[in-house]
Amino acid sequence: MAHVIPSLFETIRRxxxxxVGIALTLAVAGCAKAPVSDTVNDPGEGFNRKVFAxxxxxxxxxxxxxxxxxxxxxxxxMTGVHNFATNLDAPGDIVNYVLQGRLLRAAxxxxxxxxxxxxxxxxxxxxxxxxxxxxxxxxxxxxxxxWGVGEGSYQMLPxxxxxxxxxxxxxxxxxxxxxLRFAIKSPESDYVTGAKVIDKIGLRARHSxxxxxxxxxxxxxxAQARLLYLQNRHYTLGGDTxxxxxxxxxxxx
Length: 253
Description:
The protein is 65% helix and 3% strand. The chain has a two-stranded antiparallel sheet. By secondary structure, the chain is mainly alpha-helical. The chain has one domain (4-236). The protein has helices at residues 4-29, 45-69, 76-99, 103-118, 127-130, 140-146, 165-177, 180-183, 188-206, 208-217, 221-236, and strands at residues 154-157, 161-164. It has 11 helices and 2 strands. Helix 2 (45-69) packs across helix 9, helix 3 packs across helix 9 (188-206) and helix 6 (140-146) packs across helix 7 (165-177).
């Protein structure tokens, strides 16, 4: 993985140069943030509920048993995998912060990525947090919000779970613009995919009680999952609809 880092930094540099131009153009155009919705816009609820039922079936057959093997999801191995997977997402975060015009955050995340990729042995450890550089995650869905794009309708995606029209577009673009896609080739790319899958299982294990309560104990698990997702997303984007600011979204992508 070490030989990938120099080329990855060069890819990030090139991406950032293009993104700065885009960000400046948007700033000149006077682009304003979209308002944060305080209502539920779910016109496709019937179809979304069918997708939700499919996701619950997948969780019961695969994710719940697999997360049981992972224990609490917080042991040294799972923590290392989580650190590694989070570090892999950092280049995409950097590009998005540049696109949002948040250049200080982009610079901090670049420094964090460099420290964790070297001193943290490819991201398995997280010395950056101890140095005062905690993770600052973002995505293209937030970038679209900053650009003034509305949230759109609520959606339930197969496997990926709750989303909105804006965030679904963000997921697609995030995959396309992450510099890792260009810097890491096979077989290293296979390790990346494996790490992300294991990290998702660890995430399910870390929030096992919360997820089980939503999916299997709620009177209306679909409505509960929708409410919690939208509350957390609105809070993340700066809205005031979240009642519990410490809530960590168990469905985070």
